[in-house]
Amino acid sequence: MASRRLPKTCILEVERKFRSLAVPQLTQYGGLPHFKSLKKLPAKVIHDAYYDKDKLLSQSGAWIRKRDDIWEAKLKKGGSFLNSRFEELSSIEAISAYIRHHTGINESESRNFGLEPIAVFTTTRNTWIADDEFRIVLDKMDFGHEVGEVELQKTLLGVDGNEPTEQQKQAEMQLMDERIVDFMKTYAWAFTLGATGKVTAYFEWKRKNGV
User: Fold this and answer.
1) Thinking of the domain 9-209, which architecture would CATH place it in?
2) Which residues are within 8 A (CB) of 67 and not within 5 positions of it... i.e. 6 or more apart?
């Protein structure tokens, strides 16, 4: 009997940004309706360095970063600035292949894949898990900016050993985004809208301060 190939997977992340919390402290019973559940995770400090080369990656919708010395890639899969949809890469091989394909640069991880740092900052992150699955994140950067996100993440399985198709990814991310929209409408008392992303805010801060 022929062996069945293991399904290939990809990690999808959908997020919607908010400017800040609309309440002094986020608690399960801080507004109406109450969260079904709310778990506060320990705060943590994150060191991020974002890399690019002549804007080739950012203009193609990719963010390549080194977070606490671990390489990550977030590949934009639609949405808008406030409503982002990403496929995430974490393996060095996949990140290197993506960079090589979109820039023509073939450099090793030890040489930062031939990329240059474009933004470097430290973030203090507070995180809550609401209703058992929605991740609420509030980030405060060392240059004075604050931004939050409501996120859902899912591992999507391909069929019969194949990669998930682009159609599968888009359909799943649409459902994830609709669920986040409903969540934020239900708990509108918790969020102040109108956010500026952290990398955009970093460049604005550098420009204003002549850094």
Assistant:
1) Beta Barrel (2.40)
2) 46, 47, 48
